[in-house]
């Protein structure tokens, strides 16, 4: 009856209040997280299927919160995206990746690292000059740096994205389209934009062994990407069966729990020296 409706309404409005209080709390803590050195980059190996070796890794941010413990990016990146905080965090990520690349090259490892950019970061005017400054400061080989951008910003902000991608590729960096297949039906941007790789979203890889539609989609994406001279990376590879389908269909590289979770830098170094990589 009425009373019950009123109660559930109160319940919902209380839940909304709690949720927005949580957002405010996270935003407040995020502002101090950089100066308190609470962020950490984990690396997930990307395995080249032709050479059967780790040639690349994706940098994935983690937040070691002093009270709440380990927080994953899905919990705070969307909140940071609503303010200028995302650019501050993004700069920290870029600088930190350059430091990791420097350590890797000092150890004689030639490994590429890719950085995730959300749409707001792609639109930031000073992004390129920041990247360029970091490369110079740490004396990084730009060909070891890759940017991952999602389809949405490539379509909606084509001009701005094009300008950024042209500049980063002109200095030798590479670019991949992240979460490919989840967003857009307009594929014309693939042909026009300066790109290097397509990353097939894990939602297509998940049921690839049993679902004929997913099989067809993945085969079509690989064929199309290769026709456009783009390499293909499959994300979220968890089983040997998924891997062998991808190998059989000429996918270039794979990433997923079958090989490794994203790991701390020290553990990543161990992976580079391990069986997986010889
Ligand atoms: P993404 O770029 O699509 O990253 C892939 C996500 O899939 C990662 O989650 C990774 O840990 C997870 N993953 C990897 N292998 C497997 C697998 O075999 N199975 C399954 N189920 N999942 C797998 P994570 O690290 O929680 O990151 C989530 C998202 O947060 C990323 O999605 C990316 O969009 C964003 N993100 C992470 N780091 C950064 C960053 O430094 N900057 C920005 N702007 N966004 C970031
Ligand atoms: Ca990514
Ligand atoms: Ca992805
Ligand atoms: Ca994603």
TrEMBL record:
Domain EAL: 23-276
Annotated PROSITE patterns: EAL, GGDEF
One Pfam family it belongs to: EAL
Transmembrane spans: none
InterPro entries tied to this protein: Cyclic-di-GMP_PDE-like (IPR050706), EAL_dom (IPR001633), EAL_sf (IPR035919), GGDEF_dom (IPR000160), Nucleotide_cyclase (IPR029787), Rev_trsase/Diguanyl_cyclase (IPR043128)
Domain of life: Bacteria
Protein name, entry field: EAL domain-containing protein
Biological source species: Thalassotalea profundi
């Amino acid at each position: 009856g009425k009373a019950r409706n009123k109660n559930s309404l109160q319940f919902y409005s209380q839940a909304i209040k709690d949720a927005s209080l949580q957002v405010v709390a996270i935003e407040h803590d995020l502002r101090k997280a950089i100066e308190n050195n609470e962020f950490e980059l984990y690396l997930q190996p990307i395995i080249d299927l032709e050479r059967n070796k780790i040639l690349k890794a994706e940098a994935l941010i983690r937040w070691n919160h002093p009270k709440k413990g380990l927080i994953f990016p899905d919990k705070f990146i969307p909140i940071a995206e609503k303010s200028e905080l995302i650019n501050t965090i993004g700069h920290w990520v870029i600088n930190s990746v350059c430091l990791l690349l420097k350590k890797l090259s000092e150890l004689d490892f030639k490994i590429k690292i890719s950085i995730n950019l959300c749409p707001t970061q792609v639109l930031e005017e000073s992004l390129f000059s920041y990247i360029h400054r970091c490369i110079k400061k740490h004396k990084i080989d730009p060909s070891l740096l890759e940017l991952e951008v999602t389809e949405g910003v490539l379509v909606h902000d084509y001009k701005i994205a094009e300008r950024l991608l042209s500049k980063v590729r002109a200095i030798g960096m590479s670019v991949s389209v992240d979460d490919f297949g989840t967003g857009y039906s307009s594929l014309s941007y693939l042909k026009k934009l300066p790109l290097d790789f397509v990353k097939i979203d894990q939602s297509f890889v998940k049921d690839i062994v049993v679902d004929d539609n997913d099989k067809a989609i993945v085969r079509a994406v690989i064929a199309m990407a290769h026709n456009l001279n783009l390499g293909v990376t499959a994300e979220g590879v968890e089983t040997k069966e998924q891997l062998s389908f991808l190998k059989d269909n000429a996918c270039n590289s794979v990433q997923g729990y079958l090989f490794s979770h994203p790991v701390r830098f020290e553990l990543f170094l161990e992976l580079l020296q391990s069986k997986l990589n010889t």
